[in-house]
Amino acid sequence: MKLYKKKLPYLLTLVVGLLVCTGLSTTSVAADSNSAQPPVQDDSNKSSSNSTDVNNDNNATNDQTGKSDQTGTDDTNTKKPKPKQIVTGFSMMTKVAGNKNYKVWKEVNNGKVSTKVADGINFRYSHIQSDQLIETKKYRYWRIYVNGRQVGYVNERYFARNQIAVPKTISLVRNEFYNFPTRDAISYITNSMGTVIDNSQVTVSKDSINCGTPKTYKVKYTYGDATATVKITVRKSKKEGVVDANTVASFPAQPGTNDYQAWKTHYGSSLNYISPTEYTPETNKHTLTSGDLTLKTRLYQPVLLSVADPSDDNINRVGHIPEGVTVSNGWAYTSLLSHTNLVSGHIVGYDLNTLTDPFDAQHLLDMSQKKFNNYVKNIKVSPYIPIGHGQALGASDKYIYVLNNDNTLNDTNDSEELLQIRKGDLQINKIWTIKTWIDDGKSNRYFQNGVIVSDKDMYTVYHDTENNCYEYWEFTRTGDNWYPKLVGKTDGNFVNNNSPVQGFTYDTKNKNFYLAFNDLIFKIGRDGKLKDTYSFDTGREIEGLSVSDNKLYVNLAQRAELLVSMNIK
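Above: the chain's sequence. Below: its structure in token form.
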């Protein structure tokens, strides 16, 4: 026993010495599993080199070892050679790409990178994740996953570090019953390593703003070395958003129907979709016909655009629940939630002009690396931002719009947030709030579905359950003020089993609304007149409607499938 105790330290020293001599050392760190993202990491642990030359990744020089004492008898102060690389593992985290190009390498061995697999600039608007850091003597490399696919290793300087992405201005409708949560303005926050941090960890000079008193605030956001300021203004008008009760009550309702039923729980799916965790790519197109409306498969969408990890938090996970769609200038933008009870999620854009094959998007994980590098340039993924239930989308030439609402609310005095999102990078550009009160708030309209058709025009739909009718409202923007006007009304509930609306859009050319329930689509004139009914039998939920270039687009769930019609009239 005594001999064992004496030999053990010697054996441990020998093992450590062998590891150091090989020049390799590995550590593994698991992040706190209860954190939304890995814990805030030590910003001081970063490369001291300031070089931005992306071609010098292999040119790291070895550090000089210390010389022994001149007497040659004391070697205790001799510096031991540093390991060529240190590997650290983390729980999966989300990163944000910067605006400079860095090469993505297949591997890092013995402190050197090898085999270029991609240019990082191609992934600038993709969803990027990482779970491993390799520190060499000169650089720090992160293993990245792009839209769910493992790609390779990239220099840490590729990421947008120490940044807070917020709009410059926010404009709030006057409403003493509503407090605007200032963190809703955040597109993302990154730490010194380009890792996305949960919004709750940012320090904000005002957590919320009461909208009862006209005033302008400068709200400061701070995280570590990153700061940003947003100018937030409560508008002055007392008339904005207030509608005369007599005007609403006397508005003529057009004949409608109560004759239809829409199921509430889906009973069907695409052929190869079993569940969000069990599916294979679809191989067949669909054609759905009812009356003069024929819909054909245009694009099957990925179930996930993130690493399939059941422990993923909502920032990491992109998918699997589609909620809404808008098509604009050849791009289809869908809203995705990871859980149905959330009001934040992601918006994903697909360039239909380039992505002509309806099946390819299902193969991001198994297509060739060369094809993947080009393909994902035509897909954009937003940060994790407020999108409400995701069924009130629209677009103009430059922007995507989403009405950030709470689908559990109905009779409320709350304002609703209208987010303007840049098409270029899918980040928040501006926020307004709107309201619709009848007779100064004695009754009100809170909208679950809407469509923005231009930078100054929006339509919404409201189900008046007390009077058994549907109302159609137009919002017109003057300056920063949004003024609602009732433009149409349909008598009846369309369906007689209280099924929810699953999609709403407006055809500006033919002046028709389209209202969707599951497996049912109604065409309605601008004044509320019921013009046509289309019935299908897919057993799949409709998750959004859009009209673009004189065609109707319908998005189905289980699995997400975008269908398009011929020209409509």
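The helical segments are 2-22, 245-250, 369-375.
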